[in-house]
Amino acid sequence: MKHIREEKGLTADQLAKKIGVSRSTIYRYEKGDIEKVPVEVISNIADALDVDLTYLMGIKNTDTANQINTVVSKLHYDRQKKVLNFAADQLGAQNDNAFIETLAAHQADSSHNINDTEADKISKYLDDRINKFNGDK
């Protein structure tokens, strides 16, 4: 996050003002002192830095990702769903149980203001991952 902020020519004070937190909070986010950053805060930071949310979260939007997006956008809807399902399976395999536990912790922690839509997505994802995990045994 610090690297992106500096690339954009923003000071910690400027970014803090844009998202409504203190400069020290920005520094703590950048150093990783705050591990459970609410989704809405990450989204606000991404907007303030004018970057894609996934990029800010460390999922780089590389040339390969752009190529995938271009190709998938040209596919028929049914084929797009197949690609999406395959990608979701790959992501689940990559992140394994640690990702599931993190999502579940965020869902269970009431201090993180996850909206109903996000909670539904997390719940459906967790159900899917648990079913696949149990089916693989």
Automatic annotation (TrEMBL):
Domain of life: Bacteria
GO molecular function: DNA binding
Keywords, sorted A to Z: DNA-binding
Name of the protein: HTH cro/C1-type domain-containing protein
Every HTH cro/C1-type domain range: 1-56
InterPro entries per the UniProt record, alphabetical: Cro/C1-type_HTH, Lambda_DNA-bd_dom_sf
Species whose genome carries this gene: Lactiplantibacillus xiangfangensis
